[in-house]
Specification:
276 residues; alpha/beta; 10 helices; phosphatase activity; HAD-like_sf; HAD_sf; magnesium ion binding
C-alpha cells in the first residue's frame, strides 16, 4: 500500500452503496472532486455491476471520464469513443439454465448486453416484490421490455454479458445459487435478494486487470472503493482498498481503510485523503 498522495494513478468507484447515496444521487462535492482528479490526469472509472443503459442518469456527472468497468467486469467501455474495448458473454446454455432457475423460484430476470437492459414488464412494475423498489423508476425508463425471455436469449446468443436474478426472499436466492453451482459461472450475491451470474472468472477484479494492462498502469497504483460482495475481488487486488462505512463486515475486514458511509461522502473522504 502506497502512503503518499499523488502516487495513485487510477481510482475505481463502485456505484450503488458507494458513489451513489441512498437517494441514488452523486453528491455535488464528490462530482467536483472527481472532476478535479480527472483534470489532474488521474483515471477515474466506475467499477459497477450496472450496464451502460443504467448509467444514462449519470453521464453528465461523468463528463471527462474515459473508461468504465461495467457489468461486474464483463465490459470495459470507452466513454469517449463510445465503444466496448473488451467484453465477456455467457453461453446460450448458461442463459437457459438461469432462466430455468428463475422460473423455479418465480424470480425476476434482468439481462444485460453491451447497450441494453432487459426485463419483463410485469416484473418491472412489481419490483417491490423482489426488494428492488428503489430501482423501479429507473427500470421503467431504461429497460427494453421483453415478455418472452427464452426467445430473447436464443436470438441474442453470445451478446448477453450478465444475468441478474432477483428473488422474493434470501431463502429463494440460496436455492437458486445451489441449483446453478458448478455450471461454469461466477455467482455473486447482490442487493437484498439478488444473484448476479457472469462468465467464470469474470469479476470487477478481472476487469481492472484488463484495463490496467491496456493503460500500462500497475495494480499497485490503483485505489478501489466498494461496499458489497461483488466488490470483494477488486478490493483484494487494488493497491489501496477502501470500504464504505455501510459496507458488509466481510468487506470491511479485507480492506486497508474504512471511510464514512455513502450518505456522508465516504468517496470524497477517499479522494481528499489519498489524491488531493
Amino acid at each position: 500500500m502506497m502512503n503518499q498522495k499523488n502516487n495513485y494513478q487510477l481510482l475505481s468507484l463502485d456505484m450503488d452503496g458507494t458513489l451513489l447515496n441512498s437517494a441514488k444521487q452523486i453528491p455535488c462535492e464528490t462530482t467536483a472532486a472527481i472532476q478535479e482528479l480527472m483534470e489532474r490526469g488521474v483515471e477515474v472509472v466506475v467499477g459497477t455491476g450496472r450496464g451502460l443503459a443504467e448509467l444514462a442518469d449519470y453521464r453528465t456527472a461523468f463528463q471527462g471520464m474515459h473508461y468504465g468497468l461495467l457489468v461486474s467486469g464483463g465490459l470495459i467501455y470507452d466513454f469517449q469513443q463510445e465503444k466496448p474495448l473488451t467484453l465477456h458473454a455467457l453461453s446460450l446454455e448458461q442463459c437457459q439454465h438461469l432462466l430455468e432457475a428463475a422460473a423455479e423460484e418465480n424470480a425476476m430476470v434482468h439481462i444485460l448486453t453491451v447497450h441494453d437492459s432487459v426485463a419483463r414488464e410485469q416484473d418491472i412494475f412489481h419490483m417491490d416484490d423482489f426488494s428492488m423498489r428503489v430501482y423501479q423508476d429507473m427500470y421503467e425508463r431504461i429497460c427494453d421490455r421483453q415478455d418472452d425471455l427464452v426467445r430473447y436469449v436464443q436470438e441474442h446468443a453470445d451478446e448477453i454479458l450478465k444475468i441478474n436474478l432477483y428473488h422474493r426472499s434470501t431463502a429463494s436466492r440460496e436455492r437458486s445459487r445451489k441449483r446453478l453451482a458448478g455450471l461454469g459461472m461466477n455467482l455473486v450475491l447482490a442487493e437484498k435478494t439478488g444473484l448476479e451470474a457472469s462468465p467464470a472468472g469474470i469479476t470487477k477484479a478481472s476487469g481492472l486487470k484488463e484495463l490496467c494492462k491496456l493503460l500500462n498502469i500497475p495494480l499497485a497504483a490503483t485505489v478501489a472503493v466498494g461496499d458489497a460482495p461483488n466488490d470483494l475481488e477488486i478490493l483484494q487486488i487494488a493497491g489501496l482498498s477502501a470500504a464504505m462505512g455501510n459496507a458488509t463486515d466481510s468487506i470491511k475486514e479485507i480492506c486497508d481503510v474504512v471511510v464514512s458511509d455513502n450518505d456522508h461522502n465516504g468517496v470524497l473522504e477517499v479522494i481528499r485523503r489519498y489524491f488531493l
